[in-house]
Write a structure and sequence with these properties.
It holds the Pfam family Lipoprotein_9. This is Lipoprotein. It is a lipid-anchor. Belongs to the nlpA lipoprotein family. By secondary structure, the protein is of the alpha/beta class. The chain contains 9 helices and 13 strands. Strands 2-1-3-12-4-13 form a 6-stranded mixed beta sheet, sandwiched between helices. Strands 9-6-10-5-11 form a 5-stranded mixed beta sheet. A two-stranded antiparallel ribbon has the order 7-8. α2 links the parallel β1 and β2. α2 packs across α8. The longest helix has 43 residues. It starts with a helix and ends with a strand.
Length: 292
């Protein structure tokens, strides 16, 4: 009897161990499948390049028209992951200083003769990226309606910076009010006047102040951006004005270290786009002329 029981017990244990072995094998197979499945699924997923990091460009600009133009083309850049942070300046010195010191990524307010003059004076090497528009320079007055009314000894105000002062003198010469040694030299000064038959008193003032001096002088030659800010309409209010062939295109300016960057080049393309041209032509009605 004992032998029968022992045999029965042995057979039972063998069956139990076999069942356990089968369960472990099944569990191991299931675990292996569970571990492998996600890996295979992941491998089947399409891979994509990570999105480029958004870029913010800090741009210095005169309020009118430069900042207005930048705001108009900002959506074109937003679509490309580039945000414009526009810092407005009412003078012509700080935008170049801050760009050189890397407080700005670029600026937009000046023409090439002015840029060249400032680089030479300050030992900087700021560079033009692209030309955007021309602001024909004009002469304004609250005291006379036509240039023929300008009296002898009249007070005529011009910008006091080298290139814009020279530009004003050239415009006076081209309209027969004075004569210069060279009426194409933008660096001309009062010392270069060879004839002043009307004995005009030429007063040099900071360019930004000129619109506010119209009550004090007989004639003022004013940069178009400051004229627009003062509510003047160059095509209507100027007694005489440069033609559309003015060579003084306003520039997007950067540094040698960032001028070729993708973001700056995309900004340049947006400023030379059909959208920018349409905005300039519709908004300023000839007072500002696209240079592209």
């Amino acid at each position: 009897m004992k032998k029968v029981l022992l045999t029965f017990f042995s057979l039972t244990m063998i069956l139990v161990l076999a069942a356990c072995g089968n369960n472990n094998a099944a569990n191991n197979a299931a675990n292996s499948a569970a571990t492998t499945a996600p890996t295979e699924a992941a491998a089947a997923e399409p891979t994509t390049e990570p999105a480029a990091e958004p870029v913010t460009l800090v741009i210095g600009a005169s309020p009118v028209p430069h900042a207005e133009i930048l705001k108009a083309i900002a959506p074109l850049l937003e679509a490309q992951g580039i945000t414009l942070e526009i810092k407005e300046f009412t003078d012509y010195i700080l935008p170049n200083t801050q760009l050189a010191e890397k407080g700005l990524d670029a600026n937009f307010f000046q023409h090439k003769p002015y840029l060249d003059d400032q680089n030479a004076k300050n030992g900087t090497d700021l560079v033009s990226v692209t030309a955007v528009h021309v602001e024909p320079f004009g002469a304004y007055s609250k005291k006379i309606k036509a240039i023929s009314e300008l009296a002898d000894g009249a007070k005529v105000a011009i910008p006091n910076d080298a290139t814009n002062g020279g530009r004003a003198l050239i415009l006076l010469a081209k309209n027969g009010l004075i004569k210069l040694k060279d009426d194409t030299n933008i660096t001309s000064t009062k010392a270069d006047i060879t004839e002043n038959t009307k004995k005009l008193e030429i007063i040099e003032l900071d360019a930004a102040m000129l619109p506010r001096q119209l009550d004090e002088v007989d004639l003022a030659l004013i940069n178009t951006n400051y004229a627009l800010e003062a509510g003047l309409v160059p095509t209507k209010d100027a007694l005489f004005i440069e033609g559309a062939d003015s060579p003084y295109a306003n520039l997007l300016v950067a540094r040698p270290d960032n001028k070729d960057s993708d973001a700056i080049q995309k900004l340049a393309a947006a400023l030379n786009s059909a959208e920018a041209k349409a905005f300039i032509e519709e908004k300023y009605e000839g007072a500002i002329i696209p240079a592209f």
